[in-house]
Design brief:
By secondary structure, this protein is an alpha/beta fold. The chain is built from 10 helices and 8 strands. The chain is globular and about 40 Å long.
Length: 254
C-alpha cells in the first residue's frame, strides 16, 4: 500500500507555535511501524513557518513575504532535524524534498520528482515533502499543503491520501460552532452541497481549512486516489485506518 500522509501545522505544534514533542515523536513511531509492516509511506509535512515562529519567539505568523520566507528557512531546519532525530531512533532514513507549484506544472521537473520519490522508496527511505516556502511567491506557490499533498498523491500513483488535521472529518456544519453537526463518514461524490460545507482557514498558524481539504479531495478522487480526513491528535489512529476501520471521512475515488 502506497500512502501519502499529510500533517498540518496545527497538529505538529502547540498554540504557542512551539513543537508538540510528544505528538511528533508518536507520529514518527507509528509511521516507522507501518513502514516496517511493508507500507510505502510518503509524508507531506507542514510546520516550517509555524516552527520558525516559535523558534524566533515571534508573537504571530508574519504577514509580509520576506519575513515569511525568513521564518520558513529557520523553521524548516528545525522541522527536518526533529524528524531525522525521531525516525533515526526507529531505524529509518528520511529524505527532504521541497517543491514549488512550478516544479509540479513543469513536465520534466514533475518527472524528475516522480523518479526521485520512486527511487527513494526502493532504497528504503521515507520522503518528507513540503512546499519550498523560502522561495515560493504568489506566482509559483501551491498555496497550501492539502493541495500539495493531493497533487503529490496523484503524481506518484498513491493508493490513498490521509490528511491528518485538528478535526475528525467533514461535518454537516462547523462542529466548533454548531453542536448539532454530524460527521459524514463516506463521501461518494463531491457535489455542490458537499462543496458548500467548506470553510475558511481554521488555524492562526496554518493555511488550510475544510475548503482546501475538499479541493484536495476533488483532485484525488477525480484521478483514482481515495482520500481520508482524520484527526491527528493521536497518530495511532493510522493503525486503525491501516486495518480498514471506518475513521474520519473517506472520499471514494471514481
Amino acid at each position: 500500500m502506497r500512502t501519502v500522509i499529510k500533517v498540518g501545522t496545527s497538529t505538529l505544534t502547540h498554540k504557542t507555535g512551539n513543537l508538540n514533542i510528544r505528538l511528533m515523536e508518536e507520529l514518527c513511531k507509528v509511521l516507522s511501524d507501518l513502514k516496517n509492516a511493508g507500507d510505502e509511506i510518503i509524508l507531506v509535512s507542514s510546520g516550517a513557518i509555524g516552527m520558525g515562529v516559535g523558534k524566533l519567539s515571534l508573537q504571530e505568523k508574519p504577514k509580509d513575504m520576506p519575513t515569511k520566507q525568513a521564518v520558513a528557512a529557520v523553521g524548516q531546519c528545525e522541522l527536518m532535524y526533529t524528524y531525522d532525530k525521531y525516525f533515526s531512533e526507529y531505524g529509518h532514513t528520511i529524505a527532504q524534498i521541497l517543491l514549488t507549484g512550478s516544479d509540479l506544472k513543469n513536465d520534466q521537473r514533475s518527472l524528475n520528482f516522480r523518479n526521485t520519490v520512486n527511487r527513494l522508496l526502493e532504497l528504503g527511505a521515507l520522503p518528507i515533502i513540503n512546499e519550498n516556502d523560502t522561495v515560493a511567491t504568489e506566482e509559483i506557490a501551491v498555496g497550501d499543503n492539502d493541495t500539495l499533498a493531493a497533487i503529490v498523491a496523484v503524481d506518484i500513483n498513491a493508493d490513498r491520501l490521509i490528511l491528518l488535521s485538528d478535526i475528525d472529518g467533514l461535518y454537516t456544519a462547523d462542529p466548533r460552532r454548531d453542536n448539532t453537526a454530524n460527521l459524514i463518514p463516506v463521501v461518494e461524490a463531491i457535489t455542490p452541497e458537499i462543496e458548500r460545507l467548506g470553510g475558511d482557514a481554521g488555524s492562526a498558524l496554518g493555511t488550510g481549512g475544510m475548503h482546501t481539504k475538499l479541493n484536495a479531495a476533488k483532485i484525488c478522487t477525480e484521478n483514482g486516489t481515495d482520500m481520508i480526513i482524520a484527526n491527528g491528535a493521536d497518530p495511532r489512529i493510522l493503525y486503525e485506518i491501516a486495518e480498514g476501520k471506518q475513521i474520519g471521512t473517506i472520499f471514494l475515488k471514481r
